[in-house]
Amino acid sequence: MARWDDDDLPAGEVWDRLPNEGERAYQAFTTFLDLGVGRSINAAYRARSGRDPGASYPAAPGGWREWAKQFRWKERAVEWDRAERRQLRIAREKAREAELQVFRDDNIRRIQVSRQLLGGLTRILAANLSRLASAPPELNTMQVISLLGGYNKLSGEIGSSEAMVLSINQVFDLLEEKDRGK
């Protein structure tokens, strides 16, 4: 791509209207830009004329081709496309960062809830510890397996509130069964 001369550069971006670029030439250029990556001068002319840009006829008149050459439509369009891709990439990165933040916030909330639940369960266990010490339950094999499974869930899935509640409830259910059986 040819380099831009300082005299050719617009005050803003290269796709902005250039010095000495007439209004009609600039409108033709913006139509060219709007067609996207597969754009052509002929398709831009047809689109600007209210025709189907995908048709093969009519071809752009010589004036359009002169504008395209003089005002470097193709080079400016390449820069436009790069800027569009850059903006798209930035938008995707922002969206991804927002998703990650929601994920982080959700995990923090789950950890806080799990810690609160664990604190509550610890208080319940402490309150019932004397009961367990004074009258240890007589457990059969299935009850021991169930308690071990509950303990594994409790220790392995600290983030799962339901697993912790089930495990603790199993312990107290067995204690109540033992108390009723006395």
Low-pLDDT sequence parts: none
Shape: rod-shaped
Largest sheet: none
The fraction of residues assigned to DSSP E strands is under 5%
Order of helical and strand elements: HHHHHH
Number of strands: 0
Figure out the total of helices.
6
Notable characteristics:
182 residues; 6 helices; rod-shaped
Summarize the structure.
It contains 6 helices and no strands.
What does this protein look like?
There is one protein chain. Helix content is 70%, strand content 0%. The chain has 182 residues and is mainly alpha-helical. The protein folds into two domains: 1-134, no CATH class; 137-182. Helix 4 (73-134) runs parallel beside helix 6 (161-181) and helix 5 packs antiparallel against helix 6. The mean pLDDT is 78.
Topology, element by element:
Layout: H1 23-34, H2 41-48, H3 62-70, H4 73-134, H5 141-156, H6 161-181
Helix pairs in contact: 1-2, 4-6, 5-6
